[in-house]
Amino acid sequence: MKTVTCTAPVNIAVIKYWGKRDEKLILPLNDSISFTLSQDEMCAKTTVSISPTFTEDKFWLNGKKESLENPRVQNCLKEIRRRASKRKFEGSDENVWSWHVHICSENNFPTAAGLASSAAGYACLVYALGQVYGVEGDLSSVARQGSGSACRSIHGGLVRWYKGEADDGSDSVARPIAPPDHFPNLRVIICVVNAGQKKTGSTVGMKQTVATSSLMQHRISVSVTSRIESMMKAIKEKDWPTFCDLTIADSNEMHAVCLDTFPPCVYMTDTSHAVASLLHKYNDLKTIESNINHKVCYTFDAGPNACIFAPEAVAEEVLALLLQAFPPPPAQATDDYVKGIPSQPAT
Ligand code: PMV
């Protein structure tokens, strides 16, 4: 029997992936850019075991036995086994690719609440399967077939997922573009506005957007393409204020196209908007103080929870402001999903 345990952190997109050109292969309509958080905070942990004596594949998620029928899990498993079957192994390990697998996966933060749980989960699953079946090389295109955004959690730091051009998805891969400490001393504050499962999952939300939003056509053909280039430039030049402005603009555009769908996909709540508004006031103050390098930025995935990037020098102050403006209910733990430093890939 061979057993491997891996962890993979979530990644937070600063230029969002929203909309697919191929549903089955999970090929996006646009490039996206993200930050992979540190391993110590929000991450998935997966243990996989393979053995010639196992009689079937089995899967547990957060302690509950789950069906392995899920086509996305199957796609990842099939692709890893296909790649493993092409490798040469010594002696008794020769048919390792045909051994059944037992998978046990857990997240240390709410699942399916718009906190990128599937990104960490599939990156971790694919990385662990790759290790246990002895598959080498780029795994981002396999993780992508589990959940698009998962391909970015294969790498640490700032990562770009290239949409690619090929019909088979072979060039739709994630590549690291800058190390975790590129913007030094950066803190991430996650405001859990609601830890419940989102009403409209990202797959349905994206489909609805592509089918019905005319604003989406503008996003894809004009705005997101130029924003990607501006973001690459801001990252290259370590231009933090521009990085902040672009991050905020892209989050708002993603939620605007969601509202432009029919029926609308509403992910942000009044509290989410109040958090955004507070941070705009904070940034206005920093501009008046001529301290634009202490600006902060927010971004929202397909859910109401805010992810805030803040320079360390102001992170405590921003956190204190948030806790004052939005005091957590007494019964709720406050220390669960508060901070992390963008840093590492799946290990
Ligand atoms: O990978 P999915 O299907 O969970 O979609 C993720 C979509 C967003 O989180 C909203 C944006 C992104 O780029 O991560």
UniProtKB/TrEMBL annotation:
Any GO BP: isopentenyl diphosphate biosynthetic process, mevalonate pathway
Domain Diphosphomevalonate decarboxylase-like N-terminal residue range list: 8-174
Keywords: Membrane, Transmembrane, Transmembrane helix
GO MF, one annotated term: diphosphomevalonate decarboxylase activity
GO terms for cellular component: cytosol
Ranges for domain Mvd1 C-terminal: 188-347
Entry protein name: Diphosphomevalonate decarboxylase
Record lineage: Eukaryota, Metazoa, Ecdysozoa, Arthropoda, Crustacea
Residues shown, of full length: 1 to 347 of 601
